[in-house]
Amino acid sequence: MKAAFNLLVALFGMWLLWSGHYTPLLVSIGLVSCLGVVLLCQRMGIVDREALPLDLTWRTLRYIPWLALEVVKSNLDLARRVLSPRMPISPQLIELQATQKTDLGLVTLANSITLTPSTVTIEATSDGRLVVHALASDIAEDLLKGEMDRRVTRVEGSVAGTMENTA
Amino acid sequence: MPGALDILSWACLLAGSFFALVSSLAMLRLPDFYSRVHGASISDTMGAGLILLGLVFQAGLSLVTVKLGLVLMFLVITGPTSSHTLAKAAYRLGLDPQLRSKEENASSQN
Question: What predicted TM-score, i.e. pTM, was given to this entire model?
Answer without folding.
Answer: 0.81
